[in-house]
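Deliverable D4.2, example record:
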Amino acid sequence: SDYRYEKFKGDLLGRTGRIENAILCFESALEYPDCDFRVWGYLAQSLKAVGRYSEANDCFSRLNMKLDEELRKDSNNIYLLREKAITFASMGLKDRALMIYDQILEIDPSADFVQGDIEKIRFL
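Output generated by the structure prediction step:
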C-alpha cells in the first residue's frame, strides 16, 4: 500500500459523508515520504468541513509551503498557481487569490478556468 490508496480511500469516505474517517486516511497518507502535496489540501478541506478550523488553517499553510517549493521549480506553472489561488480562497484570503488569478492571466491569457474559479470564490 502507498499514499495513493489512503488518498483514494479518504476521498471516497469524504464523498459519502464519513469525514472523520477520511481525515484519518489523509493523515495516514501524509506519513509516506513520497506523498503528493495535494493531500494537505484534502486534509485541510476535511478538517474545515467538521469545524476544526485551526487545524485546517495549519494544513492550508503547509500546502502553501509545498506549492511554493514546486513553484520555485516552475514559476509559470499555471496549474500550481491555480492550486495556490484556491488555497488562499479556502483560507478566506480572496484578495490574494484574485491577485494570483491575475498572475495566471498574465502568463496565459487564454486560461479558461480562471473565470469559473473567480465566480466560485464569490460564494466562499
